[in-house]
Amino acid sequence: MAKKIRIPIKSATDIKKMRVACETASEILQLCAKAVQPGKTTAEIDAYAAELMRERDCKSAFLGYRGFPGQICISLNEEVVHGIGSDTVIKPGDILKIDVGITKGGWIGDNATTVPAGEIDLETKRLMCATEQSLYDAIDQARPGNLLAELCGAVEAHVKPHGFTVVREFVGHGVGRNLHEEPQVPNYRPSGRSPKLRPGMVLAIEPMVNAGVAGVTILSDGWTVITNDRKNSSHFEHTVLVTSGKPDIMTARPREATEELLGINMQDDTHD
Question: Is 157 exposed, middle or buried (0-12, 13-18, 19+ CB in 10 A)?
C-alpha cells in the first residue's frame, strides 16, 4: 500500500440509494441459501437467483462482468470463489458458497455466505464458524480513524489460531456505483502505508478461508478458484459503511455460523 490511493466517499444521498441495493442483495442471498438442498443442481440455484432479481427489478452485477457467465457465484466444497452454476448435483455434506451481487438504481450491493447441504462434518463446521467470526471481527474495525490494515489483519488473526489459512490472491474491495472500487481489502495485514478509514467509505469485506493450505488454482473455465489441496474453503461477505460511530452493515442478515447454531465449541480447536 505504498502508493496513495483515492477511496471514494459516499454522500448521504448516495448511501440512501445504495442501501436499497444492499438490502435487496441480502434478501436474495438469504432466499438462495434457503433453497439449497441435496438433489438440486447448482444451475437451479443460479436460475432461482435470476428469478428473484427479475421480481425485484434489479440485475446481476456479475453476469457479463469480464465475461462471467453466471447470475451469482456458486462454489462447492474446495471451490473457493467464482464458481459457475452447472448440472452438478448438490450432495449431503456439501458446502456451497453463494455470492450475490446486484445492481439497483445505479448502485451495487454485494454479499456472500457459506451454506451446508444437510449435516456436515465437525472440521467443516469449525471452518465455517471461524470464517464468519473473522468477518465480524474485521467489521468491528471499520471505524473512523482506524487503519485499513488493522481491519484486514483481523481476519487472519482470528482464523490462524484455529489452524486455518486465508486466501491471499483474492481480496475484498471498495464498492459503490462500480463492483470493484478502491481500496483492496485483503484478509491479512498488508505491509507498507495504510489509509485511514473515514465516514462515507463503503467496503465489501469478504474472508475466504481454507481448511488446509492457502494456495489456490484457477480451473480451465477461467473462473472457478479451487484450493490446491482440495480441502474445503469457506466464504462470508458483507457490504459495510464506515460511519462517524459504529460500523453499518448495509447487507445485514442474521448470523449463520455461530458456535451455538452449529453446536460446537471453538475453544477446543486452537493451534499454536
Answer: middle
Report pLDDT digits (tens) over 33-61: 999 999 999 999 999 999 999 999 999 99
Domains and CATH numbers, the chain: 12-262 (3.90.230.10)
CA distance 21 to 175: 12
pLDDT of residue 267: 87
- Exposure b/e, 38-56, CB count within 10 A at least 16 = b: eebebbbbbebbbebbeeb
Q: 220 exposed, middle or buried (CB, 10 Å; 0-12, 13-18, 19+)?
A: exposed
Query: What pLDDT does residue 3 have?
Result: 58
Q: 169 and 159 in contact (C-beta within 8 Å)? A: no
Count CA atoms closer than 13 A to 255's CA, side-chain side.
Answer: 15
Q: What's the pLDDT at 107?
A: 98
- Interhelix angle 148-159/122-140, rounded to 10 degrees, is 160
Cα–Cα distance for residue pair 184/249, rounded to 1 Å: 18
What is the residue-wise DSSP string for 209-238? EESS-S-EEE-TTSS-EEETT---EEE-BE
Render pLDDT for 83-110 as a digit per residue (tens, 0 to 9). 999 999 999 999 999 999 999 999 999 9
* CA of residue 24 relative to chain centroid, distance: 16
Q: Is 199 helix (H, G, I), strand (E, B) or coil?
A: coil
pLDDT band of 4, cuts 50, 70, 90: confident
